[in-house]
Structures are given as structure tokens and as C-alpha cells.
Amino acid sequence: MQRLNSASLGSLDERVGVPAYDRTSISPGIVHFGVGGFHRAHQAMYLDKLMDDGKALDWGIVGVGVLPHDKRMAEVMAAQDNLYTLVVKYPDGTLEPRVIGSIVGYLFAPDDPEAVLARLTDPATRIVSLTITEGGYHVNQVTGELDASDPGLAADLEPGALPGSAFGFIIEALARRRAAGVAPFTVMSCDNIPGNGHVARKMLAAFARLKDPALADFLEQEVRFPNCMVDRITPVTADADREALASQYGVEDGWPVVCEPFTQWVLEDDFGGDRPAYEEVGVQLVEDVEPYELMKLRLLNASHQALCYLGYLAGYRYAHEVCQDKLFVDFLLGYMDSEGTPTLPPVPGVDLDRYKHQLIERFANPEVRDTLARLCAESSDRIPKWLVPVVREQLAADRGIEHSALVIASWARYAEGVDEQGEPIEVVDRLRDKLVERAQHNRDEPLLFVSDRDLFGDLVDDARFVSAYTAALSSLHEHGARATLEARA
């Protein structure tokens, strides 16, 4: 058994890929907020590939954690010299492990905020990237404006306060760079948000304006925010994943990452300075990301929502179980064909019909073992961005909404906190208390859940949506998820 660290790299099982480059020659160029599974399976992996070709050695990543639970990541990364194992899981059971070496540092911000600011203000830092989840941008779902009520943002707005949030650190660092005459870094959002670069720019500018209007003007004029679309199914690491890596390959890794074989990154080439040569390792550099972004959000992400609540209520616990059931597959393809796809612009170079069937194959990969609980989490940050826009466009064009209405009804039913077998459901959402309280009235006040205008806007005022939604919710209560789908088949 080999504990993963720099000293053990040369003695690992030969089936485990390791960096071919000298990690001591890497210098930092990127600061990343939100080092979780996805970042380590995606952006860090692409840089590792470049470094293996002897390139981008001045683009090492320094991770930053700002939340209390990031402390564990800091401890694991410190113990492993910032190394970790990425394990690609193929449908036939084949595993492909590789140690990734592109992350060269990790800072836990609450322990030393000034160390984070020093790294952010270093002229060598030319990109600040983000995977802080959809909710991390503090967008009011109805107005599209900054919701500054978050306690972390409020604390960062206090005069003289050291920053504690990602927003606070970025704005303070830009202010210090501006004062010192250092060019601003590029801010690269990699979260699942339509127009993620535009959203990051708008929200950070609004936050900056509350602190210093002149700084907000500088940000809007001088800082670049490329849009991008990122895609790779990366489930939460389970103990079984650590055990498999240890038993089959002799690697003791405190926090490996598992993922599917598929990976895609479509990136707008809009950087304030130089950037890694991402295009040399398969990243699609384009002028307009939006068609690819909408394709992913409204087909992949929205389909995850279409399968997770219904599947969970029907007794399934993994995405692959749902997508090996023809009844559910037909429903997913029905949503994608009749509701998701009609809202999409042409996507250059993509066969949408092939893409949709490829999604089903990816979801059905039994080795990934993506839990429905993960897909059901933080729905209040997901459904309003991924599915509600589909409903709105379909209503405006007088097209069908029955699939989407059932998905929203299945979320409302799931939020009741009890499945069809009477077992408790752990609802994980930043708005959990409000959602569960409203869902408790689904039977006697069936429109209460969707009357939350912060999440659904004025959908509750549309007679066609109300009819489809209430019929779906009633069927879920009276007949259950499976019978509801069977009645539609």
C-alpha cells in the first residue's frame, strides 16, 4: 500500500498514470475557488494533460476554500502534496486511474485571508476560476439582480473587513491590483449557469458597486469574463471508491475523484492576457458559447431533474437504474424531443439526435453510480435556471409543457420529505425549510409550492401551466410516479 504523495509517485502500481513532468518546475498562474470533485475531474485534468506535453508549466493551480467544510479538502491536499487520483469509470467495469499534478497549492481562506489576497494580487496570477455552484453567484431568480442579503456578502461590505467570501476576495484583490498598477486577472466561471461569464461579471460588478463605484466601473471596463460550458458527470466520492483504489491498485488516497469517460469544455476565447493553450488538449475555443451552453443545460441538466425526483419516488436510488428502465427513458426522450430541443438555437457541429441518445447512454453507465440524492440536491438553484426557462419559451410559442410540468410537480412531491413507501426523504437545499413547509400543503393548496415567485416568477398565473401542473401533482399523489408515467406512455 502506498500513501499518495510526491515521494511515492515513482513506486506506484504501473497501471496508475502519473505526471511525466517535474512538478517542482511548475509555477502558479491560476487561483481556483471551489476545489471539489468536478474541478479536479475537469479543469485541473485538462491542465495536467498540457503539462504532460511539457506545456503550461507556468499555469499551476492554487485552490482556495472559503467555506467551513473546505477544511477537510485543505487537510487532504496538504497531506498528499496536492496530488489526487482521478479514476475514469467505463461502462464495462474498466477503471483508468491517473494521478493529477496540476494543483500546486491549496489555501483555506479562514485560516489566513491575507495569504489568499497575496496570491490573488501576485502578477503571476492571470486567471481566477470558479466552481462555486449555481447559488454562489447570489442571483435573485426573478429579477436577475444581485441578492446582497447573504450574511457572507454583508460581512464583506463592512468597512475595513477582511474578505471571507469568494466575491469579497475577488473584489478586494482587483482593488489592490488596480491601486498597484497591476493588470487585472481574467475571471473564468465554470458553473452550470446560462451565460456564466456574463452572470459573474454582472454580480461581481453589482457587489463592487456597493463598496466602491469607481472600482465597479473599472471591473466592467477592464476585466474579462469568458463564458464557458463544462460537462463531465462526476458523482460524490464514496468510501467504496477509496477502497477500490486501495485494494486494486495499492494507492491510499484520502479523496480520489471518480468520473465518466465523457468530457467536454466549450470556452469563449475572451481573456484579458495570455492563457493556457487549452485547444491543444481538446477544449473547443469558440466565439459564442451560448448554443452549446443551452444544449447542455436544457438537455443534460434538465434531464437530470426529469429523472431524479420521479426515479427516487418510484424507488430507485441511482441514475443508471432509472436509465435502464424503458418507461423512464421514453419519458426523458419525450421531454428532450418535444420540449427541450424546440427551445434551442442551432448548435454548430452537433447532431442533437445523437447527443440526446448519447446522454441516455451516459446516464445509464452502471459504474459511475451517480446517486439520485445528489441530483435532487439544491433544486432551488437548478430548476429555475434549467427548466423554468423551457416552460416559459414553450408557453410563449404555444407548444407542449406536459413533461416539464410533471418534473416540477415531482420536485414538489419530493419536497414533502416522504417517499411513496413512507420512508423519509432528506431534502438538501439552501431553502429547505421554506420548500418543505410549502410542500406540506400540496394536497390542500396544490398551487402553494409554485406560487413562490422568487423561484417560479408568474408561472402560477398561467392557466395552461396550472392545469398541467395540478393534474401531474394529483396523479403523483393518487397513483405514484411509475403509474403516472405509464398513463402517459
Automatic annotation (TrEMBL):
Matches recorded under Pfam families: Mannitol_dh (PF01232), Mannitol_dh_C (PF08125)
Q: Which UniProt keywords apply?
A: NAD, Oxidoreductase
Q: Which InterPro entries match?
A: 6-PGluconate_DH-like_C_sf (IPR008927), 6PGD_dom2 (IPR013328), Mannitol_DH (IPR000669), Mannitol_DH/Oxidoreductase (IPR050988), Mannitol_DH_C (IPR013118), Mannitol_DH_CS (IPR023027), Mannitol_DH_N (IPR013131), NAD(P)-bd_dom_sf (IPR036291)
Q: Where is the Mannitol dehydrogenase N-terminal domain?
A: 29-278
Enzyme Commission number(s) from the entry: 1.1.1.17
This enzyme catalyses:
D-mannitol 1-phosphate + NAD(+) = beta-D-fructose 6-phosphate + NADH + H(+)
Domain Mannitol dehydrogenase C-terminal stretches: 288-476
Q: Which PANTHER family match?
A: MANNITOL DEHYDROGENASE 2-RELATED, MANNITOL DEHYDROGENASE DSF1-RELATED
In the record, the note on similarity to other proteins reads:
Belongs to the mannitol dehydrogenase family.
Spell out the protein name for this chain. Mannitol-1-phosphate 5-dehydrogenase
User: What species is given as this protein's source?
Assistant: Kribbella ginsengisoli
